[in-house]
Structures are given as C-alpha cells and as structure tokens.
Amino acid sequence: MALSEFSLIQQYFSALGDASGIALGVGDDAALLNVPSGEQLVVTVDTLVAGVHFPADASSADIAHRSLRVNLSDIAAMGAEPRWFTLALTLPEARPSWLQSFAKALAEDAVAFNCALVGGDTTAGPLTITIQMMGTVPKGEGLTRSGASAGDSIYVTGSLGEGAAALSLFDTTLDNQGHSVVVEHERNRLLQRFYRPTPRLTEGLKLRGLASAALDISDGLLADLGHITASSGVGAEVKLEALPIAPWLQLLAEKSIVNRWALSGGDDYELCFTVPKANQDRVERLIAKGELSASCIGQITEQKGVRCIDEHGDLVHVPNSGYQHF
Ligand code: ADP
Ligand code: MG
To answer: Does any ligand 1 atom lie closer than 6 A to the CB of residue 131?
Structure first.
C-alpha cells in the first residue's frame, strides 16, 4: 500500500514524544518554540546514510534509535537538556511496516529522553535520516571544547572500545577470528551498544560548573581529545592502564587490538571531559557515591599534542588508524 506524503506524516510523525515549550508543532510551515528566559538554545544535527553510517540491512527500529541517540549525545556533551527535534527523512519507498516500527522506536526514545518531534521533511531517495536536535542550557553554562588548562585532569564516562568492536563485527574482522570468539550474547551486546548508545545526559548536567571542557567521543578517544587540546591550546597525556575497558571486552581480542578499539575506534558516545584541580574533589566524590560513572585517564599538559604512556611512564606509539565505517 502506497502512502501519500501527507498521510504518512499525519499517521506516523504528527505526535511523537513529549516536551514543553511547543507553541506550534508539526503541521504548519514551521514550528514555534518557546525558549525559557535565561536559557540558551543548543542546536545540533547529524545525518545517517544507509550503507555509510549503518549497514543497509539494519532494522528501522535500530536506525531510529541510533539516529536520535547520536544527536542526544551531542546535547549531553554541551551539558544541555534535550527538548525538540526535527526529522528529515529520505526513503526509497513508503513501506508502512518499516515506517511503523521506525516511528514507534523514535517515539519510545523521545519519551525516554524528554524531547518531542516538532517538524521535518519527507522526500524520496536513498535511505537517509537527518535529525536536528534542539536543547536548552542556562545562559553561559554550556560545556565547550575550549576551556581546558594545563594541570586539569582528563576523565571519560562509562567504558570505551565497544563501539569500535561493534564496527569490526560489520567489518568481519571478528568473524575472521572465528564465530566461537564472539558468542551470541556478546554479539548482541555490541550491536546494542552500536544501535542504542546511551546518551550521557545526566552526566552532562552534573558536569555543569565542574568540567572545564567536554565533548562526546564519536571518532575515537585520541581524535576527540585532540579536539579539546586543539581548541584549548594545550596538550594531553593519557595513561593506558587507566582506560576503562570492560573485562568481557578485553577477552574478545588481543590487548593491542582492544587498546586500539578504546583509543582510536569511534562510536562509543561516552563523554570525555576535563576537570580543574579546584573541582576534582567534587568530581571524585560524585564518582565515589556512585552518582557519576567516570574514570580519570590522564592530565592536560602544556606540551602540545596527545600522548599515551604505559604503566612505567614510557611513551607508547598508538597507530591512530581509525576504523573505516563499513
Ligand atoms: P512545506 O511544504 O511547508 O515545507 P511539508 O509539506 O514539507 O511543508 O511539511 C508539512 C508539515 O509536516 C510541516 O509542518 C513539516 O514540518 C512536517 N513534516 C514533514 N515531514 C516530516 C517528518 N518526517 N517528520 C515530522 N514532521 C514532518
Ligand atoms: Mg511551507
């Protein structure tokens, strides 16, 4: 059954999610949104192309979750709260079953993360999903990449490497090592991590006023930390033994590969942030109380560039190959 563009929008995208501040949502020429006074609008956009950013045969629910969550991750990295989003959808065909599970998954996440769809565009063509996410942050409190100073400590949330390990599943690197290596539940866990990364929104909020710089790790820790050091005019030293790598992940491949996943692989969507000495006790207390899942992995230095050191303090060369997406 073919759907007209109008009924497609009406049926699947007219009431999706929940958020305050919508004076006018889907259905007019544009949306009207009320930004609370004293707050700044935070805007980000990410495009996902089938066969480039996700395997072409991915389910529509998986695609929906990933499209929304990578954008939410950028909002988290700014220390902001998500509110509204727009959706530009390019579809090879308007298949109701595909659209139904896409919209359902998008709605689930929109509700879970307190944001609502307020408009978009629908066109025919190769499968491409563009979501523009809007959030708000109290004026001047947004976390940027440019505030790190020498002596600040470097932290990351959660654990690293699973995003890159998931990519290598598509890459058949792991498959080449034999299916026995990656058992079903590990495979599912990696795919879950890839398609449903957890946007670190609550962590981002807690870091307001504490972190001097922050970003989310989408291209790999070293590359992304390099954005903080370049923007801030400083350097960084990362202690390899301090990297938070899940024990089960360490068993999946040899140490050099796992380290490369954690350091140079993309798609983890954890936050990397820096903390000035004056705030470090407060951050450590949040961690000790279990209110913030984060680990200190190194220090910001005056010496430019990003360096890795081993447990003896010796410099380690890490090939920053970066994983090719598919
Ligand atoms: P216009 O011709 O004015 O650009 P459209 O016909 O493209 O308007 O869209 C009509 C309405 O439907 C607009 O409010 C638009 O924001 C909304 N819309 C279109 N596509 C989507 C979509 N994929 N998701 C949510 N809203 C959409
Ligand atoms: Mg119009």
So the answer is: no
Ligand that comes closest to the CA of residue 16: 1
Q: For position 229, what pLDDT does the model report?
A: 98
Q: Residue 27: CB within 6 Å of ligand 1?
A: yes
Q: How far is CA 26 from the centre of its chain?
A: 26
What pLDDT shows up at residue 176?
47
Same domain, 21 and 97: yes
pLDDT, mean of residues 85-112? 97
d(CA 277, CA 275): 6
User: Looking at the structure, do residues 158 and 288 belong to the same domain, yes or no?
Assistant: yes
Q: Is 95 inside a domain boundary?
A: yes
With the most atoms of ligand 1 within 8 angstroms of its CB, the residue from 13, 22, 24, 26 to mutate is: 26
pLDDT in tens, 214-273: 999 999 999 999 999 999 999 999 999 999 999 999 999 999 999 999 999 889 999 999
- For 151-200, the pLDDT digits (tens) are 999 999 999 999 999 988 887 544 444 444 678 889 999 999 999 999 99
Q: How many domains is the chain partitioned into structurally?
A: 2
Indicate if 132 and 179 belong to the same structural domain: no
- Is residue 68 located within the same domain as residue 22? yes
Q: Which ligand is nearest to the CA of 120?
A: 1
Using the mean position of ligand 1's atoms as its centre, give its distance from the Cα of residue 38 in Å: 30
Tokens of 116: 């609502």
Radius of gyration of the chain (CA): 20
**pTM for the model:** 0.93
Query: Which residue range is the domain that position 304 belongs to?
Result: 153-309
Express as a percent the part of the chain with pLDDT over 90: 86
State the Cα–Cα distance between residues 167 and 197, nearest whole angstrom: 13
27 CA to centre of ligand 2 in angstroms: 9
Shared domain check, 305 and 159: yes
Which mutation among 9, 60, 63 tests ligand 1's pocket best, with the greatest number of atoms within 8 A of CB?
Answer: 9
From the list 289, 286, 136, the residue with the least C-alpha distance to 207 is 286
- Does the CB atom of residue 272 touch ligand 1 within 6 A? no
Return the structure tokens found at 150. Answer: 């020498």
CA nearest ligand 1 atom 7, residue: 121
Contact between residue 196 and residue 267 where contact means Cβ atoms under 8 Å apart: no
